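Ticket reopened. Same input as before:
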Amino acid sequence: MLFLQALTTDPNVSSVLFFGTIGMLALTIGLIVFISFHQRKVIRYQQQLQQLEQDQQKTLLNASIRLQEEERQRIAADLHDDAGPLLATARLYLNENFVNLDKQTQLQSIYNAKQIIDDTIQLIRNISHSLMPPTLKNFGLESAVNDLFQKISGSGSMNASSRFHDYRERLKPENELIIFRIIQELVNNILKHSNASFIHLTQNSSGQRFFIRLHHDGRGLTQADFEKLGKSNVGLGLKNIQSRLKVLQGRIFFEKDMSQTYYKVTIELNREEDSRLPAGTN
Amino acid sequence: MLPKLSILSSLLPITFFLLFCYKNGNKGLWVIFLYSISSLLFDLFLFTSSWAFENKYLVWNIFAILEYSMLSYFFYIVLKSRATKIFILIFSTIYLILFCLLASTSDDHFNSILSAVGSVIILILCLVFFTQSMKLTSEPISFFSPIFLIVVALLIYVASTLFLYIVASRLSDKEMEQYWILNHVVNILMNVIFSMAFISFRSQHKNPSTENAVDFTRLPDDR
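Engineering reply: fixed in the latest deploy. New output:
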């Protein structure tokens, strides 16, 4: 207020008015120019971010499509190479009955056909189980993971163990399947690439957060490797993990243990997201 | 010529508002429309009525109160932060009470201090708007958003006339007439930018997909 009064008492009113107005206008124009440049910069930055996100989405979608195609090919190959010949053989045995009327021979060929049909049933069951593990469906993630690790350990190729510390409250079945697939993918990678002698899985919860951690002593990935592979054209399995985690809005961390001996993979989920996710998101 | 042009320039935003924003214009645009109407009416009243011309300082004071109330209400709608809304409410109440008390004692001359303080408050609100808009890094404001253009127009008007208002009380009637040209020029410019704002509102509603940034004319209160 004093400043304003001091200005008004200035005898050279016109110069105050002239310089004051010019100064204010210059400041205003400067401000508008600054804002315009700033906004352009922000918009450009956001466009770049959007572009990156679109690219990432595209890569994930491609990975998901490729994976789906591979899965279809595998099922087609299983059916064509295993079930097809088995059923054809069974048909041949049954055809025998029309040609050979000897009762003993007929009984033998019916028995052989039955054996082959049993094998085919078992084969189709295996294919069906690989699509949706019955243990997971009936008994939940804990049992399915324990089952998977027991099978790995039972094969003698690697020492595998799993332990669920706090899994009294089950996740939604569709989310359990997604997590199970992620674990399968990680375990497959470890079996294929790490040359590890053991894998150990632990599950834990902290408040609303749900953790699964895998330890192994082979060659592993760090977070930087994971991100690099996620952006490249290779690493289909890792992209698949990324896209599955995106559905769950979960996170994954790859790191080397403090002792530099083990590799750790941690999957983190929020149980609130689990309850919010609509059914059938997989 | 220039004073007449300045008065008539208020018709521009009024016409464009009625053409493009009358049906779906939001609160902020309506406030500016009413401001343009009141500005036109006051100017016409001053220009045509001899009583108003004789008591021009009283008429100016009344218009200053109305003008300040409308512009501060405009910012009250536009600015989203709760603290700023409280700031507007408190300062506007104090300012308007002071204005009403002091304006009655200055019917015979231009009240520089009150007008300048009003301008400074509006200037601060313009700066607050820009600061808040720049903070929203995830939602950049469009240079052609109607509200942005309106704030730019107000900023130019207030910044250009601030020093004129400060020195106006020291000017003789003749000097006042001479320097008031600045007010007329800036008033025309402000009305042109207001018109641009209303036109941009129309173009945004016609082609919403071409709008890259957030439309600040769609305020949460209006939904």
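The longest helix of chain B spans residues 173-206. DSSP finds nine helices and no strands in chain B. Please confirm and we'll close it.
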